[in-house]
């Protein structure tokens, strides 16, 4: 009879061998291992957890780290080379994981081995000395035990999570025109801290509400869910910068460190770096060599250029479209003084992107691309350069090409909330992927991009709720949408999402219609809600009422030259045909077909299935529906609304339609279970 312990060892040996065969593939994770072992993710998770007390991802990481140790001992490869060969895309993350596992950084492997070797060789000659050392050790231990027994319990140090918020710096000068310099200092210090993976840093947007807020430090720390607060104030007098900075423990309001700086303006970069490093040192944050190198990088040698850049940045950070032109002016002035200023080029590209945002005709793609390429050429590791290039692809609707630039920006700045916001937008609106959408939304919340500001928190809880409902998590979606509305009851986006969540629970079209109309009445200019009301009437087959809302929607959209909701043209075209407006209907269906045929998302084939069903070509409709059934990570709304959509009336009673749609449903719920297991493993659920 085979010994069960032997079977377990064989299993662990087998999966270890599989991981080692894919050791350099950074994308080889839980799903890939499950596929290689012909096991479900949940079964694999349970078995490895039972045998090793580790999650699957932790086990994979452990195998990578053991392999790395062998390579560091037996080859001449450096730490960076080894990290990539064992599947770590980030050397800094590899160093952190290695240190956590072995208790010392990978750079010390050779030295430690040499020390241990010397110890073995000298073992015999040191036996007598060992007896003395042992006796001394016993005495030390005895004293230590007495100290521990009689030491007051309250003096035991408590390790605090390394989380921090840098509050807006105060301008001590009577000259309000200098505020951009103080804002620039604050943002530069914040950006340097954000580059450290071992630290959770609250975003600039999230702390802005505390600029003139009378709340105490403990109240702010509690609201922001951080353990440390940085306060600062300063002014520029002539060529001198005066800066006061203090680090405070949030819960106790205890001052841990403070410093007054009086530096010449030409030392502004050293000042920013010094402050960031001092803060990190005081809370014992691990800064990897790569992170320190990025912190030490000076953006420009020209102080005049930097001054123009700070003026432009202050305007860009407002997010107001009317300020973008002036921001570009200052960035270009900075480039005139230093034509190798990467952040200034990136600033121009990002500002042009906001000029084009939501416009039907994109006018500035060439400028975005030109300035982004110059920024990347000058500094390929600058997060803003990478974001600028990603935004060029976003502007050109080449969304797949934007992803690696955003992900690389996150690698160089793990706390960059702006990257999370763009990735969430990508995976919900352009590259629908329920698992990635939910993961980035929850990760964004973990680094606290909401910061419990009533408006920002409401929007981010809205994102979390939407991510949950798209993956079929109705209870979780309702929980977070209620949180969103608690923070901002007038958030109409959250109101109409809640209407859809309740529909997912009870499938009551009358109720969702009434709730949406009530929401629209609070702001009758909202085109998004207007077309949602029209859509529900369309699903109810009340085409006259649907036309009433759709017609107003079309009029406003055309008057403002907006290119939005192209995926809804088929529904609107269907309603127009029912109202006898054949020519207008056909025009919209032609637009819809063109949109569907050029759609790069997973919804291309279901859109074409809808089109051909309406046209009565049931064979093509079924063919495209079958192609859609082979996709992954589609949204829950696909299951809820497809069967009641009038566009599929010509095919929904066909046996083939029922069979294909049943497969779509089964696949969705399988994916739902996998997402749940993955989020639980990553401790995000």
What would you note in describing this structure?
The chain has 685 residues and is mostly helical. The chain has five domains: 4-119, Homeodomain-like (Arc Repressor Mutant, subunit A); 163-296, ABC-type transport auxiliary lipoprotein component (Rossmann fold, 3-Layer(aba) Sandwich), CATH 3.40.50.10610; 303-416, Serine Threonine Protein Phosphatase 5, Tetratricopeptide repeat (Alpha Horseshoe); 432-506, Tetratricopeptide repeat domain (Serine Threonine Protein Phosphatase 5, Tetratricopeptide repeat), CATH 1.25.40; 599-685, no CATH class. 65% of the residues lie in helices and 6% in strands. The protein is built from 33 helices and six strands. Strands 1, 2, 3, 4, 5 and 6 form a six-stranded mixed beta sheet that branches. A hairpin with a 4-residue loop joins strand 5 (240-249) and strand 6. The longest helix has 27 residues, at 655-681. It is globular. It starts with a helix and ends with a helix. The relative contact order is 0.05.
List keywords for this structure.
Serine Threonine Protein Phosphatase 5, Tetratricopeptide repeat, six-stranded mixed β-sheet, 5 domains, mainly alpha, Arc Repressor Mutant, subunit A, single chain, Rossmann fold
């Amino acid at each position: 009879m085979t010994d069960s312990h032997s079977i377990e060892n064989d299993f662990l040996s087998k999966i270890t061998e599989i991981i080692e065969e894919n050791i350099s593939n950074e994308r080889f994770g839980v799903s890939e291992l499950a596929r290689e072992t012909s096991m479900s993710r949940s079964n694999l998770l349970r078995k490895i957890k039972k045998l090793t007390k580790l999650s699957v991802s932790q086990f994979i990481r452990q195998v990578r780290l053991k392999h790395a140790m062998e390579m560091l001992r037996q080859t001449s490869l450096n730490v960076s080379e080894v990290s990539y060969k064992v599947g770590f895309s980030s050397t800094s993350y590899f160093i952190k994981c290695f240190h956590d596992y072995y208790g010392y950084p990978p750079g010390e492997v050779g030295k430690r081995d040499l020390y241990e070797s010397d110890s073995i060789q000298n073992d015999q000659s040191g036996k007598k000395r060992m007896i003395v050392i042992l006796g001394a050790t016993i005495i030390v231990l005895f004293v230590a035990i007495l100290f521990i027994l009689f030491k007051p319990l309250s003096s035991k140090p408590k390790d605090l999570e390394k989380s921090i918020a840098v509050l807006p710096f105060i301008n001590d000068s009577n000259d309000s025109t200098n505020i951009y310099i103080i804002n620039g200092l604050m943002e530069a210090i914040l950006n340097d801290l954000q580059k450290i993976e071992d630290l959770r840093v609250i975003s600039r947007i999230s702390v802005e509400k505390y600029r003139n807020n009378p709340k105490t430090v403990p109240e702010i720390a509690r609201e922001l869910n951080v353990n440390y607060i940085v306060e600062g104030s300063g002014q520029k007098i002539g060529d001198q910068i005066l800066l006061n900075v203090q680090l405070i423990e949030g819960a106790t309001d205890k001052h841990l460190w403070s410093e007054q700086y009086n530096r010449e303006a030409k030392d502004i970069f050293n000042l920013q770096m010094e402050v960031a490093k001092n803060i990190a040192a005081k809370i014992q944050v691990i800064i990897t060599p790569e992170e320190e190198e990025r912190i030490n990088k000076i953006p420009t040698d020209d102080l005049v250029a930097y001054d123009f850049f700070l003026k432009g940045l202050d305007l860009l950070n407002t997010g107001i479209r009317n300020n973008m032109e002036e921001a570009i002016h200052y960035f270009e002035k900075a480039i005139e003084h230093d034509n190798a200023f990467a952040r200034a080029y990136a600033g121009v590209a990002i500002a042009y992107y906001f000029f084009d945002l939501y416009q039907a005709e994109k006018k500035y793609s060439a400028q975005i691309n030109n300035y982004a390429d110059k920024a990347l050429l000058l500094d390929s590791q600058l997060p803003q350069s990478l974001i600028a290039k990603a935004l060029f692809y976003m502007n050109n609707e080449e969304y797949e090409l934007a992803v690696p630039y955003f992900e690389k920006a996150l690698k160089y700045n793990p706390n960059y909330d702006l990257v999370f916001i763009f990735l969430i937008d990508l995976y919900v609106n352009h590259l629908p992927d329920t698992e990635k959408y939910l993961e980035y939304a929850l990760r964004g919340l973990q680094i606290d991009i909401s910061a419990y500001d009533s408006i920002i928190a409401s929007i981010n809880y809205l994102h979390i709720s939407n991510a949950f409902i798209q993956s079929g998590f109705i209870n979780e979606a309702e929980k977070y949408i209620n949180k969103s509305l608690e923070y901002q009851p007038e958030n109409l986006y959250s109101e109409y999402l809640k209407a859809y969540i309740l529909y997912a629970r009870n499938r009551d079209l009358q109720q969702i219609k009434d709730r949406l109309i009530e929401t629209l009445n609070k702001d009758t200019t909202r085109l998004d809600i207007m077309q949602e009301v029209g859509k529900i009437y369309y699903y109810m087959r009340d085409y006259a009422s649907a036309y009433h809302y759709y017609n107003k929607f079309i009029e406003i959209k055309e008057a403002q030259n907006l290119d939005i909701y192209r995926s809804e043209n088929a529904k609107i075209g269907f309603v127009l045909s029912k109202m006898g407006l054949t020519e207008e209907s056909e025009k919209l269906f032609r637009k819809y077909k063109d949109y569907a045929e050029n759609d790069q998302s997973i919804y291309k084939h279901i859109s074409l299935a809808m089109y051909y069903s309406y046209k009565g070509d049931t064979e093509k409709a079924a063919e495209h529906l079958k192609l859609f059934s082979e996709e992954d990570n589609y949204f829950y709304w696909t299951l809820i609304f497809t069967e009641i959509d009038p566009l599929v009336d010509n095919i929904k009673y066909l046996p083939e339609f029922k069979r294909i749609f049943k497969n779509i449903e089964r696949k969705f719920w399988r994916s739902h279970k996998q997402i749940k297991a993955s989020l639980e493993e990553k401790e995000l659920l």
